[in-house]
Amino acid sequence: MKLKIKNFGPLTKGGTIDLDKRFYVFVGKNGSGKTYLANLVYEMF
């Protein structure tokens, strides 16, 4: 399953995440949406 994100909260550039993987690493500057994205994926499962 893949999750496509665009213009969602601080995640303005968009992208795709492959949710079939068991381990994720989110890297970026402060305020770029790493925690926002982690919480989104957590709430989905």
Automatic annotation (TrEMBL):
- Pfam families the UniProt entry points to: AAA_15
According to the lineage, what is the superkingdom?
Bacteria
Which residue range or ranges hold the Endonuclease GajA/Old nuclease/RecF-like AAA domain?
2-44
Instruction: Give the InterPro entries listed for this entry.
Output: AAA_GajA/Old/RecF-like, P-loop_NTPase
What SUPFAM superfamilies does its record include?
Answer: P-loop containing nucleoside triphosphate hydrolases
**Coiled-coil ranges from the UniProt annotation:** none
Protein name in UniProt: Endonuclease GajA/Old nuclease/RecF-like AAA domain-containing protein
Q: Which source organism does the UniProt entry give?
A: uncultured Aureispira sp
